[in-house]
Amino acid sequence: MNQKSRTVRFVQNFLCTGLYQITAMIMGFITPRLMILHYGSEVNGLIVSVTSFLTYFKMVEAGLAAAAIAALYKPLAEKDQSRISGVVSAARRLYNKAGWLFSFMTVAFAVVYPFVVPVVGADGLSMSHLSEMLLILAMGISGALEFFTLSRYRVLLTADQKTYIVSLASMASLLLSTALLVVLPFLGADVIVVRLAASLTILVRSVLLRRYTMRNYPEVNAFAPPTKGSIKSHWDALLFELTNVIQQGAGVILASLITRDAGILSAYGLYHMVTEGLWGILKMGTTGIYSIFGNLLVSEDKQSFSRAYRDFECLYHFLCSILFGVAAILIVPFVNLYTHGVHDAEYNLPLMGLLIIADALTNQGKIPLNLMISSSGRFREVRWHCILQIVVTMAVGAVLGVIGLRYGAAMSVCGILVGVICGNVTRIACKLSFVPKNITGVPWQESLTRIIRMLVTTAVIAAPCLLFIHPPQRFFTWFMYAAVLLIYATLVSLASARLFDKQAFSSLLSRGKAIVGSLLHPHTKQQED
Known about the structure:
Shape: globular
Oligomer: single chain
Helix content: over 70%
Structural class: mainly alpha
Number of domains: 2
Distance between the termini: 11 Å
Number of helices: 20
């Protein structure tokens, strides 16, 4: 695939994924407030906690997805339909096994969890253990359906750089799900019915992707004899992806076990919702990018690969500086405005807000390095990195969480977040010791410099505003602040990239001009990169 084709696919994936992520972010902001208003903060805290645990359980397939995508790069490039069918068939069988494992874990969790975290509803009455169990099962149905009906199609389309199709189908399912989450509470429906109806909407995505795949890949047979050993790095990839999700959910998981306070879980969930929205924006540029890098690795064009990686790393950290710099300033005012009129839990928690931003920033700092491991399929070599990160996160987070509990549930969560940040930093150090030398060919000092520059630039953006700007008291004022701060943060980040990363910055400008030129003059032949 030449540079022009890669650029077209990237633009398609970027636009559609961006549209989906923006939709998901908006919908994600709508539903928690409705849950709090109709069912209470503690029920919302329960939903936040259970969602994190279910996401953790779904990681029984994450390694399979990464390994199957890596195994499909070469046969797709060579248009070897027999090998494509063999890999997809092998993935289907493993997905079915993973689906049964996920279902078992969800049922076991639903039985145990109600005895760990008691919940009081908006009516002041305690939710029964049976109701908690049924709510967890209702939320878990979507995950089980995803394993059995959806995942193999997503793997094939992602490997073929068609994530825009997955994004469009996901958006259709998301809009229907959100509509139900908005309408049913106003009709007085029980929270269990509401979450069950929302879970079943995943069938819409499955049907759409199945029809597209059958129409556009008629030669691919998901029931062909599986290619044995085609997904040999499954378990190593599982550990790799499992670590990422544990790190994403470590805060709420440890907080659930240590504090057993559904109210503080609701507050944590709202602050974390903001960083998840920002991560969704960043995914606009990363969804499908590893398949492009995988294509470059298969072509063995090392020069193009190294240049592309430098540019991508520079761009990603540039965007992180802007988004998290602004978020550090506005996250606490946003949550205060969002929960205006809600008095059954404490939401004004500035220290927690800043620590959640620090967690998100240190986590996102390693994403370019992570993507290179996914692109190359070299999961086995980084197993000890994953184990070390889990140990650091859980050990430090648990110790500081227990100590912080003496001073209240909020301080306990802050201690847990410090542990998560320590785990992020550990993982960055491990990645820098492996990825530059073994995959990208870019000196590790370059990647480390960009990460440090991202952290410093974010601090430079946020610190003056936190000290001297009065928090907005209305949503209209908040949006005005956000617009001005985005301009300010962009200018600071541009200056930082221009001064301290001139080579990658100039290359990005050249790429931007080339993309604009190809859009304005689509018949002009692009130079191979």
